[in-house]
Amino acid sequence: MTDRIRINLKDIVNNEERLAPGHRLCGGCGEPTIMRMILHAIEGPVVISTATGCLEVSTTVYPTTAWQVPWIHSAFENSATTISGVEAAYKALKRSGKIPADKEIKFLAVGGDGASYDIGFQWISGALERGHKLVYVCLNNEAYMNTGIQRSGATPKGANTTTSPVGDVIPGKTQWRKPFTRIMAAHDIPYVAQAAPHNYRDLMTKVKKAFAADGPAVLNILAPCPRGWRTESDQTMVLTKLAADTCYWPLYEVDHGKTVVNYKPREKKPVADWLKVQGRFRHLFRPAYASILEEIQARIDQEWERLLKEEAAG
Amino acid sequence: MKEYTAPRLDRPWSEVNPGGIVLDPGISVTYITGTWRTMRPVRDQAQCTQCLICWIMCPDAAIPIVDGKVDSFDYDHCKGCGICAEQCPVNIKKPHSVTGELGKVIQMVPESSEGGE
Predict the structure, then answer these.
(1) Is 80 exceeded by the pLDDT of residue A126?
(2) Which residue of chain A comes nearest to B61, CA vs CA?
(3) Where do the domains of chain B lie?
């Protein structure tokens, strides 16, 4: 365990902005705020590789770039692999003396939920198994938003997307989301955490812990998408707070195998509070879909209980 | 941040960097996303407590910092999403310096209206 980390905005407010304005991410998008929080939490030089997705296309519209750090993109599936190679090259250059032995550089791979849950899944697994010292961040907006809101492995049950459209046949997506954070934790890597941007202190503490870990680390961060979730652009932080308060998106970490739930709502809100504010779930409140609503609540309760049990088990 | 002029879009292929690499970090500032805005945030500087929540929550780094304090808005890049006004935790006691209304230190006004620094 690392020492207690304190996040004080006054300490970081004079830091250089490493993600410049002028990027084309939608107004109210959760991703740039999360990226800024991550970059403000990282001390010293960092190299970033991003997978194909909203963040990648919107920050690097040719011939401009919003990044003020070394940045690489190669394909949809392999941001973890690309940054693995960069980390290996850094180690080799250090060995041969071309990079001074005391120069510390950090390595960050970023992907959306499509790149993390589906397309780049096995590549992340490989990078974790090889034990590169890197941090993988999943900016989870729960569908393929960049290409126009197609369902992904992260899309929750009942969500209306263009490839799981609500109608007479199906009530939105029929499958449950993949437990990505748990699967990452099952790799027995030093640090895995789930975070959300409304709680910037928790998020930035987790970033610092991830980079201080003695091996690979993974962060899964909920990033609201006003277009895909059908919400107002100013509700971004309100939504992630609701996700944490309903236990739909628990804020927790698995530090060297030990599970800690970082936020336990004083009063656990019904999951309907989280669903009813989003257009993608509007249909679930028709009487015909009452059973699905109950099923979602039961599943959330079950997962929350399991998490609390895992924490108690230590 | 470095000062840039907008990159040329009519460069012949022979002048393009190999691999299409962009060598100017942060040159996206030359692209004005402020034109997207329909609602504009306005701040009552005198009643602001400098909690910096708006600064950390802004998706566009559009809240400039002067001597460690938030100072107005970067209206060239603010997209008007309203997250700052929604997240502003300070309920003001006197009417807002721009809107004249009670509420938060940061409030949203229609882009077509007067006001803002």
Answers:
(1) yes
(2) A21
(3) 13-110
A-B contacts at Cβ under 8 angstroms: 133
Residues of A in contact with B81 (CB under 8 A): 27-29, 226, 233-234, 236
In angstroms, the CA B27 to CA B20 distance is: 15
Residue numbers in A near B80 (CB within 8 A): 27
What pTM was estimated for this model as a whole? 0.95
Question: Rounded distance, CA A12 to CA B52, Å?
Answer: 10
The CATH number assigned to the domain with range B13-110 reads 3.30.70.20
Helix (H/G/I), strand (E/B), else coil: A159 = coil
Query: Between chains, do A36 and B9 touch, taking CB under 8 Å as contact?
Result: no
Query: Which residues 16-55 of chain A have a CB within 8 Å of chain B?
Result: 16-17, 19-33, 36-37, 40
Look up the CATH superfamily of A9-313: Thiamin diphosphate (ThDP)-binding fold, Pyr/PP domains (3.40.50.970)
Taking 3-state DSSP, the helix, strand and coil percentages for chain A, each rounded to the nearest 5, stand at 40, 15, 45
Would you state the pLDDT for residue B8? 87
The domains of chain A are located at 9-313
